[in-house]
Amino acid sequence: MSFLGITNHDSGRKERELMLTSRNFTARLGIGIILLSTVGLLAQTTNNNNKKPAPPPPPARPAPQPAPTRPAAQPQARPAPQASGAPSTTTSAPRSGPTTTTTHSGPTANGPTTTSHSGPSTNGPSATRPAVTTTNGGVGATGARNALRPSAVTPGNGNGLKPQTGGLGPSGMSNSHPVVRGVTGRPVPQSSHAQVLRSGSAIERRPDGRVSDVHDVKRGMDIHHDLNGGRRISVVRSDHSVIVAERGRPGFIQRPYAFGGRNFAQRTYYDHGRVYQHFYRESYYHGVAIHVYAPARYYSVGFYGWAYHPWGRPVVYAWGWGPSPWYGYYGYYFTPYPVYPSASLWLTDYMISSDLQAAYAAGQESATLDPGPRAGDTSAAMTPEVKQMIANEVQNQIALENAEASQGTQNQGSDTDSSGIARMLGDGGTHVFVVGTPLDVVDGSGSECALSEGDALRLASAPSPNDTAASLIVLSSKSSRECAKTSTVTVAVDDLQEMQNHMRETIDRGLEQLQATQGKSGLPATPPSATTAPTTMAFAQLAPPPDPNGANDINQQLKEADQSEQDVTAQANQAGPAGAPASSPQ
Length: 586
Known about the structure:
Layout: H1 2-50, E1 132-134, E2 162-164, E3 179-181, E4 187-188, E5 193-196, E6 202-205, E7 211-216, E8 221-225, E9 231-236, E10 242-246, E11 249-259, E12 262-271, E13 274-285, E14 288-293, E15 297-298, H2 301-308, H3 325-329, H4 343-366, H5 384-406, H6 416-419, H7 421-424, E16 432-434, E17 439-443, E18 448-451, E19 456-461, E20 469-476, E21 488-492, H8 493-517, E22 535-536, H9 538-541, H10 550-575
Helix pairs in contact: 2-5, 4-5, 4-8
């Protein structure tokens, strides 16, 4: 019995040890599996974070439909170029697309204000529609080009320039010159002189002593004098709406509002009696407030396919520019395609011609028309290679809008991460931007140079995560007063977003004209699947209506700017000499 008891005791002890060993092994095995799973998830997350966004897929090709045979149009003779500053009795209506000539006169926003909605207006939300509310926060008060940036000034300091991390050089390495933000928040050369007053107002001068920027804290006004002689005024009002005005060019009033729990911005443009609206989703990129264009209308998938893919045969299109002064004036720079095998090439000429019409009309009205190159100098001409790069980008934007329409995100507005510059700067592709409004930038030598409507830029390299600007290469510019071709310039990310907005807005106007005139004037007819009327988005239908006094408000700010400059300049003269240039990071 004793023997049996000892044996049973030893046997039980061994069984317990075996069970403990098994449990320890199982526990260790489980921990190992958990650790391996965790490592795998971390690796997958890292790969996902490093993964570049895929480009939007191309639209499906619609069923082909032969275009009617039409006689070839005769080449249009260009009128003789008109001398800079000479009075013009006929000018093209800016921003309305390439059209026959239209006569207008007066300041930017004068004339009767005829309201034009992107969709039907309503008096309020219904039970089936999301509520729309105006907002006083978010990005609404900042982000619409230079004027809407928060001023980088500190009251009482002698120098308000703030060096910040910025653009990249052509090789992808950081430039030796950090991005310097001036008194109105725009990038400026390090040699600029800023004087910040105790009141909080500020004045900034270029190295030659000329005033470039004025910040009037009392009026909430920023004024920028560009290198080509133009003046841009912006005012942030107490309700967080923003007024932007520039003589000769469309002024606008931007208002933030909420729809479906998302922040939007509505810009109402006033252009010589013409009133129109654009809509934007509010967002941030690298900490910078940006507004990403949100189309108010989307077309059918069949129409996007017709606009994306080559047409059945090349067509000749008569634009009707022959007698237009702008067409003769910019003959040294722009030549339309002789034939159009696809909508992307037609839209490229539509966009460039729209920009040049706007630049010519504004230059005539404000007496700031660029002189152009010397007679016989053909070096400024936009090359076919550059035009093809623009056409490729136009095609990319058509694919992007088709993807937005197909994903069913229209009524909430486009996804800012996939529809704005976040995708363009992060997908590793070649991207081209076309300047839509005058812009002063800083080149690789640290000097300031000008860009204007119709100039083309190519992204040199993506900005690093902390950069608020990017480096671009100038592909095409119009005169010796502008940034030189092949030079590398630093452009703020909010200005890049505005360039992309400009391209998409112009493409949408062109698509509207293409659908309205398909099968006419030499254009091929669309297939039945492409004739469906576009759908207007709810966020545009329910947006606040335009201000009927908007044109008067814009003109009033143009007048107020004169007094503002006088007041701030007088304060600066009383305070003493301007501050020293910002020459090193602080």
